[in-house]
């Protein structure tokens, strides 16, 4: 154990977020919402930020589950400390590259890259101001790492690899403690595979053939639910205190074999794995 390490008899105390404050962008629904719920479950106070005027019905259900008698915040009401952020706000537009309108490409990058960068910078300013240190997690994608079959969205894919490099760059820039006593900030990313969220459900309405393609491309032969809570809690808590500049790939094994169709072929008789 490191010197002065506080050992207590609570289970997995390093994951405890009691007394910590977080923001989650894109927290109105989908993946962002489920990650916000994870932080609240671990004891954190979470502010969900989103461009939606009202949170999704799912948000109300999540609030009831994790804060049955308390108050969950939809907008920031008090500012005293900020310990972490999950940057999940993102948009997807599947359009062949030669048909992609310039303004659509700019809008995609404005949210998926510039918005994420601005969010992280604003969060870091607060963390250094409050001298509280903290952890930032970008939601990138496996589409930022491979030419993901059927993901005919060169701009989206590029925006996600940009986030992965942003992760490393900001981790380097903000990682160490400052001379004024402020601790450093850790910056990591999660790169999920295909998850059934409102974003993907809409994609399946536009391109129904993608459902089967994407289901068969990973080793588990199923799409993910928003089942990334453990990873987010790990990255936002003391449990990952020596981890920064990293990108956690959670894709059901999709990227583990370079020929994804081969993987689908050899396992076609096997049932989906839970
Ligand atoms: N669903 C997947 O398969 C998948 C896979 C890999 C990565 N991701 C990423 O996960 C993140 C969440 O995706 P999701 O599937 O839950 O999508 P979603 O569309 O269900 O939710 C995204 C949320 O972001 C919000 N948002 C969009 N633009 C915004 C902006 N400019 N400012 C504030 N909020 C904004 C939306 O209103 C929405 O509530 C995205 O960054 C997405 O790229 C999703």
From TrEMBL:
Highest taxon, organism lineage: Eukaryota
InterPro entries: NAD(P)-bd_dom_sf, Sc_DH/Rdtase_CS, SDR_fam
Entry GO MF terms: oxidoreductase activity, acting on NAD(P)H, oxygen as acceptor; oxidoreductase activity, acting on the CH-OH group of donors, NAD or NADP as acceptor
Pfam families: adh_short_C2
Gene3D superfamilies given in the database record: NAD(P)-binding Rossmann-like Domain (3.40.50.720)
Alphabetized UniProt keyword annotations: NADP, Oxidoreductase
Coiled coil: none
Protein family membership: Belongs to the short-chain dehydrogenases/reductases (SDR) family.
Protein name per Swiss-Prot or TrEMBL: D-arabinitol 2-dehydrogenase
Organism of this sequence: Hirsutella minnesotensis 3608
């Amino acid at each position: 154990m490191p010197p002065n390490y506080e050992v207590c008899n609570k289970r997995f105390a390093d994951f405890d977020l009691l007394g910590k404050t977080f923001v989650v962008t894109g927290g109105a629904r989908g993946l962002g919402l489920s990650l916000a719920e994870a932080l609240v479950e671990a004891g954190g106070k979470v502010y969900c930020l989103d461009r939606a005027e009202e949170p999704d019905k799912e948000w109300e259900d999540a609030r009831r589950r994790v804060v049955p008698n308390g108050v969950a915040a939809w907008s920031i009401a008090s500012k005293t400390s900020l310990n972490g952020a999950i940057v999940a706000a993102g948009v997807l537009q599947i359009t062949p590259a030669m048909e992609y309108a310039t303004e659509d490409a700019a809008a995609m990058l404005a949210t998926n890259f510039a918005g994420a960068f601005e969010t992280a910078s604003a969060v870091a300013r607060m963390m250094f101001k409050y001298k509280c240190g903290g952890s930032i997690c970008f939601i990138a994608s496996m589409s930022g790492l491979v030419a993901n079959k059927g993901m005919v969205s060169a701009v989206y894919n590029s925006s996600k690899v940009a986030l992965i490099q942003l992760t490393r760059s900001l981790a380097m820039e903000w990682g160490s403690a400052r001379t004024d006593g402020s601790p450093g900030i850790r910056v990591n990313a999660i790169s999920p595979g295909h998850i059934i969220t409102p974003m993907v459900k809409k994609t399946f309405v536009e391109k129904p053939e993608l459902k089967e393609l994407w289901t068969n491309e990973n080793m588990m032969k199923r799409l993910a639910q928003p089942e990334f809570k453990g990873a987010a809690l790990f990255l936002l808590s003391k449990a990952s205190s020596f981890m920064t500049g990293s990108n956690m790939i959670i894709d059901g094994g999709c990227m583990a074999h370079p020929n994804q169709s081969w993987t689908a072929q050899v396992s076609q008789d096997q049932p989906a794995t839970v």
